[in-house]
Amino acid sequence: MDLKALFAGSKTIAIVGMSTRPERPSHGVASYMQHAGYRIVPVNPNYVGQEILGETCVAALADVTAPIDIVDCFRRSEDMAEVAQAAVLMRPLPKVLWMQLGVENEEAAKIARDAGVDVVQNQCVEIEFMALQRNK
Predict the structure, then answer these.
(1) Domain extents for the chain?
(2) Which DSSP letter does residue 14 get?
C-alpha cells in the first residue's frame, strides 16, 4: 500500500476506541492528525455525544455520517473482526482499515480486503505520517 498516496488523498479519520483522556495514545494520535489537517471522528460508546477535540463522539461506525477515508482502530486484536464488519458496511467504503501498534487480526484483514478495503496492521498512523513528512 502506498501510504504517501493514502495520506495525500485522505481527509477524514474515524478513531475507533477514542479516549477523552489526553494521556491515552488514541487521543494523542487523533490530536496530532487533526493538527496535520485531518478531520477526526471519535468513535466510542462510552463517550457518545461528548466532544473530543471539538468533534462529537458517536457510539459506532454505523453512526458516522461523514465519508471516512481511514478507520484507525485502538481496539484489542480479538475485537477487530467486529470492527471490520462494521467498516465494510460504511458508504462510501473507507480506503483503509488501520490497526494500531500491537493490533493484528487476519480474520478482520480478510473481511476488509474481500470488500475492497485496504488493510494496515500493527502500525501507528502518526508514526507513519511523521516518517513521510520527514522524507519529503
Answers:
(1) 1-32+68-97+111-136
(2) E
Task: State yes or no: pLDDT of 136 exceeds 80.
Answer: no
Phi-psi region of 128 (alpha: psi -120 to 50; beta: other; left: phi over 0): alpha
- With H, G, I as helix, E, B as strand and everything else as coil, classify residue 3: helix
Strands in 12-16's sheet, in edge-to-edge order, are: 39-43, 12-16, 70-73, 96-99, 118-120
Specify burial of residue 125 (Cβ count, 10 A radius: 0-12, 13-18, 19+): buried
- Residue 71 burial by Cβ neighbours in a 10 Å radius (0-12, 13-18, 19+): buried
Query: In the CATH scheme, what is the code of domain 1-32+68-97+111-136?
Result: 3.40.50.720
Which three-class secondary structure state does DSSP give residue 99? strand
Q: What confidence tens digit (pLDDT) does each residue in 96-121 have?
A: 999 999 999 999 999 999 999 999 99
Reduce the DSSP state of residue 129 to 3 states and report it: helix
